Amino acid sequence: MSHQADAKRLLDDRGYSGTTVHDINPAHLLEKAVRDRITESYYWKEQCFAINEATLCDRASALTYIGGTYASQKPTAFLCLILKLLQLLPEKEIVLEYLHQPHFKYLSALAAFYVRLTFEPREVYTTLEPLLGDWRKLRQRTREGGWRLSYMDQFVDDLLTKERVCATGLKKLPNRMVLEDLGQLEVRISPLGEEIEGLDDDDDVQEVKAETDGEFVEVNGNINGYRKVEEDSRNGNRSYDSN
């Protein structure tokens, strides 16, 4: 019963006096309807009882997918643990350890989501952007209750660019270029920078005019003189580990 009382205090709109995040009760970073479904769920009552930052790792290491709500608006275990993190408010060093440990990818995904919810915009970019090079596979529960394949870099990109992820409305993130202009961020150098620059070389991009009719034609696999570029260069480099 004390666990339920603690949860109610966390969710209470009246007289909250604990630590705030973005000047509000941290639990309110999740929408009220979602919070209510989480605290009424079996997973919250059975698996989120009396856990701390250390034992939460055990729950997160057992996760097998990410997601928000599904079927009849049931919350996923992933979303339940997000609310638990908002209740615990672990130290930043602990969150970064969750994020960068190499063994449990769903713990990393959980930490990435928590970072997006609670960190300041500059820290969100500097903390999450390195994960855009993380191509581990993630299984995601869809709203309809099905499954789809995702990847860590895709999940992080959604956190940085979308306004709603995992049934959660995200606080608007300032455009990166605005923070660069304000001197809060350095210009980001893409890991694909050398490949992109290579496309501008005379040896790689050239216009070839056909000898006849003065029209551009396909020459050595190049259409109209331009080399074909793969739609997504990541596909040839993704990690297909089973972790």
Structure, briefly:
The chain has helices spanning 2-11, 32-39, 42-47, 53-61, 77-88, 92-100, 105-118, 121-128, 152-161, 176-181, 193-198; strands at 69-70, 74-75, 137-141, 147-151, 164-165, 168-169. With 243 residues, the chain is mainly alpha-helical.
Helix/strand class? mainly alpha
The total count of strands amounts to: 6
CA radius of gyration is: 23 Å
Biggest β-sheet description: 2 strands, antiparallel
Number of helices: 11
Strand content is 5-15%
Mean of residue pLDDT?
A: 81
Percent helix? 40-55%
Sequence stretches where pLDDT stays below 50 over 5 or more residues: 1-5, 207-212, 214-233, 239-243
Helix and strand arrangement:
Layout: H1 2-11, H2 32-39, H3 42-47, H4 53-61, E1 69-70, E2 74-75, H5 77-88, H6 92-100, H7 105-118, H8 121-128, E3 137-141, E4 147-151, H9 152-161, E5 164-165, E6 168-169, H10 176-181, H11 193-198
Antiparallel strand pairs: 1-2, 3-4, 5-6
If you had to describe this structure to a student in words, what would you say it looks like?
With 243 residues, this protein is mainly alpha-helical. The protein has 11 helices and 6 strands. The protein has helices at residues 2-11, 32-39, 42-47, 53-61, 77-88, 92-100, 105-118, 121-128, 152-161, 176-181, 193-198; strands at 69-70, 74-75, 137-141, 147-151, 164-165, 168-169. The strands form 3 sheets. It has a two-stranded antiparallel ribbon with strand order 1-2. α5 (77-88) packs across α7 (105-118). The relative contact order is 0.10. Mean pLDDT is 81; it is low at 1-5, 207-212, 214-233 and 239-243.
